Amino acid sequence: MLGGQPLAIVTLFGDTPRGLAVSPDRSKVYAAIFHSGNQTAPVSAALPCPGFDSDMPCTVMGQTVPGSQLGPPTNHAKIAAPKVGLIVKQDAAGAWRDARNRDWSAVTEFQLPDQDVFAIDAASLTPTQSFQHVGTTLFNLAVNPKTGVVYVSNTDARNDLRFEGPGTFVPGVTLQGHLAEARITVIGSDSSVKPRHLNKHINYATRPAPAGVKDHSLSTPVDLAVSADGATLYVAAFGSSKVGVLPNRRARDRHLRSGRRERRIHPGHRRRAERRGARRPRPPAGRDPVRRRRVAGRRGEPRRYLARQADQPRAGADHPPAGCSCTTPRCRRPTARRRARAATCSATPTTWCGTWGIPTATSSRTPVPIKLGFASPGTINGGGTGGPAGLHPMKGPMATQTLRGMVNHGAMHWRGDRVDGLFGRDTSAGPPYNAELAFKNFIVAFDGLLGNGAAFSSGDMQAFAGFALAIVMPPNPVRGLDNALTVAQQHGRDFFMGCAGVDSSTGDPVTCLEGRPTGAGHFADGVGIDQLGFRCEGCHVLRPELGFFGTDGEMSFEALPQTVKVPQLRNLYTKVGMFGMPAIPGDNPGNNVNQGPRSAAAGSSTTARSTRCSGSSRPRCSTRGAGSGSPAAIRSAATSSSSCSRSTPTSRRSSGSR
């Protein structure tokens, strides 16, 4: 930038650029897309044919589909499974195929080009090339100063597969301990893209892993650096609190991996690293910059460095990353392989990454009130779980949600599954429900999903809950710094709160006091009957003084096959971009034809009359006040109505639900 003005705005076809690196001759800049995805997408539960595991095509609402949903038809207790969607993945020919190799392209009206890394001409500031199939979540880039080869730290998700647990009910089918693979992808000077798995020493069929496996594993490879001679690649593995020291010749020979052959940063060298870091706080000029690498300590601790002279082995310090207390399970109790982590589904607490179909082990029954539960059919949640309050474990594909702002939002998981569990059952008479209890009930995932083996202690889980529930939402970056609303945003807020139009109960003009209707208000769903019709805010509760930013933790029947928790909306602006939904009930016409290349496969799907979320609980409120179904218009409405008060951005009463 010159004088605060950008030289150019470079447009990249992807969701959130993150990593940047420069070629040795400085003629190119490489940019990596953080949420690049892996060409997977959800198919609506309304589309599969009746039954399970059938490959017989049928016609559903005028559209030919290749078969039924994936089985099994019941859980291990023989309780009938609900009707759910499935996840498809785009193949090399552009067809959308499921786990049975059936083609769902006719009802998946978009393409995902999977452009992961871009080369930008440094002189003209225009993209000149893109590279596909680099990874699902791309963290950073480094360029070899001698060869120009680009290294990309990433994880590659296996979300096209299903199930947690030991894989006995559906033999051999499980994600336990193998949700994703930590990788370094090598982009060659010939434009080749070669992913390299960092943990080839792991036998994923053995769960939990034998002792010692985790000591040689690298999880969540975040940062990268290359030595000045181009011979060594350094990988900072955030999830395992290690720095991997990897010979680059192995990358060329397809053998780049962690394990016993590569050197590690070991705890025994911590004091030596600290002494050298204290004596020489910065790398000396003219020396190889990789010989002394800064390692971030916990908050309030001095900087530390990894020191290495020519005649010394590579060494350093192994301790938790910044902001991590060693009382938390992530520091003290790593997963059995120290590679499979919850960060696979939520790369950072702020982010969400794609859609997963991970059935849980057992059914649960929620005591939380269910709006419109009396209107649900006998087939709700599969029909054998006890009505709308019975949550079947085989819930189908659902989109990952943010981990920020979970406090005050009650039972967690997509449907509020964690309302009961190992630590007890939430018996709250009303909102706010017990978010701490719900978080601690996630303890079962550390074995069932991550393959950790023995459970954490209750003290570990308590410390983890305290850490996670203190994570808060930032201020909405779309909203003005003065907290004032634009005309479009104010119109959106009025509609959201039920202050636009006529009172749906009386037919008289709505009267509002301090932004809230004094009567029933205008019902956004068009149903003018009390207890059947609702304002947007009637479900997506906006009460900043109580810590409710789009939900109070209750649940709802939404004319879907399953009961869902009412989701928070405060980060809705990050999810706009899902278009190309098929013409099914509940999705208004307007974007049902093929949309061409898209950068997102799940998120908020918008039309001129509704806002719908694919793969998760779906807000039903209209956005007519925005005046358009464009992403910009929906973003304005979401900003005004769901972002709420900017005056409490760091309060523990922030938004979010898991």
What are the SSEs and their pairings?
Blueprint: E1 17-22, E2 28-33, E3 40-43, E4 49-52, E5 58-60, E6 63-65, E7 68-69, E8 86-90, E9 96-97, E10 115-121, E11 126-132, E12 137-143, E13 150-157, E14 180-187, E15 193-197, E16 221-226, E17 232-237, E18 242-247, H1 249-252, H2 270-279, E19 292-295, E20 304-307, H3 329-332, E21 355-356, E22 364-365, E23 370-371, E24 390-391, E25 398-399, E26 420-421, E27 424-425, H4 435-440, H5 445-448, H6 458-468, H7 487-497, E28 512-513, E29 516-517, H8 536-539, E30 542-543, E31 548-549, E32 555-556, E33 564-565, E34 604-606, E35 611-613, H9 631-642
Parallel strand pairs: 4-7, 23-32
Antiparallel strand pairs: 1-2, 2-10, 3-8, 5-6, 8-9, 10-11, 12-13, 13-14, 14-15, 16-17, 17-18, 19-20, 21-25, 22-24, 26-27, 28-29, 30-31, 32-33, 34-35
Helix pairs in contact: 7-9
